[in-house]
Amino acid sequence: MIGGGAGSWFLLGYLLFPIVAIGGFAGISSLVFVIETYERRMINCGVMLTGLVMLYAGVLVGCLLLAMAGASGGYALTIQRSAVNTAQDLLSPYVGPITVASLVAVAGTGLTIYGMATAKASKP
Known about the structure:
- Helix 1 (6-38) packs antiparallel against helix 2 (45-78).
- The chain is built from four helices and two strands.
- By secondary structure, it is mainly α.
- It has a two-stranded antiparallel ribbon.
- The protein is elongated, with a radius of gyration of 19 Å.
- It has one domain (15-121).
């Protein structure tokens, strides 16, 4: 991740958010709709809520940090005319928090899938 330039980070932050926020959550919503409506199974709300909150928070924080890192690195390169090494030094502190946010999003996705997979048949 540190090998990419500031523009890549900025673009990735802004592209991932609509893809995951719109596409991912629309996919999850459609799966939940099918499970609850057509399969007549009840999803564990506690697991799903925890998973969705973790997924949303991880994606939001990760994308914001990617965009902030890309903007600060791009500013250093283009406006301040700094060296590439200086821009890389600006990006490196963001690697750890972005990694943690990504892991939170992955854990939230796992909990969401687990919540859908363990849905129990509802009583008629």
